[in-house]
């Protein structure tokens, strides 16, 4: 399964959230992770994220596409690379 | 067709980019627009965005899913609403 996770997390927690998501997916742009993942790994990832998140303030959307052939991604302008996450 | 657009735009241009995208799609979270759109409208939207963007600095990803049934969205924490775009 292919997933896109977009997030809007309080600045005190965003570092930990990114660190956790990097265990499972690829950072592709500010506020966006994506990649292939199993249902089990996604469930575990989300459970661990909930332990970090403040559900009253933070926002995290998970878009799941079962067949990667059903989604097409086009890049306009710059393609951000993981190192940008630390700049 | 359903699309998700994620963006990382220089602060001088992000306001104009958001204003333009609101003509076509729904703002759902910082750096994320989504919604149903025709191929023609998406082509026009992207062309107009390129007139605003600085391709050397800005980054914009367009995820296209032809059949909205092929994507499932789950929300964790807060669901941001369009008014948050102005806070």
From TrEMBL, chains A, B:
GO terms for molecular function: endonuclease activity. It comes from the Bacteria. Gene3D superfamilies: 3.30.70.240. Its EC number is 3.1.-.-. Mg(2+) binds at residue 8. The keyword Glycoprotein does not apply. Its cofactor is Mg(2+). SUPFAM superfamilies: TTP0101/SSO1404-like. It is an enzyme of class 3 (hydrolase). Keywords: Antiviral defense, Endonuclease, Hydrolase, Magnesium, Metal-binding, Nuclease. Belongs to the CRISPR-associated endoribonuclease Cas2 protein family. CRISPR (clustered regularly interspaced short palindromic repeat), is an adaptive immune system that provides protection against mobile genetic elements (viruses, transposable elements and conjugative plasmids). CRISPR clusters contain sequences complementary to antecedent mobile elements and target invading nucleic acids. CRISPR clusters are transcribed and processed into CRISPR RNA (crRNA). Functions as a ssRNA-specific endoribonuclease. Involved in the integration of spacer DNA into the CRISPR cassette. Homodimer, forms a heterotetramer with a Cas1 homodimer. This is CRISPR-associated endoribonuclease Cas2.
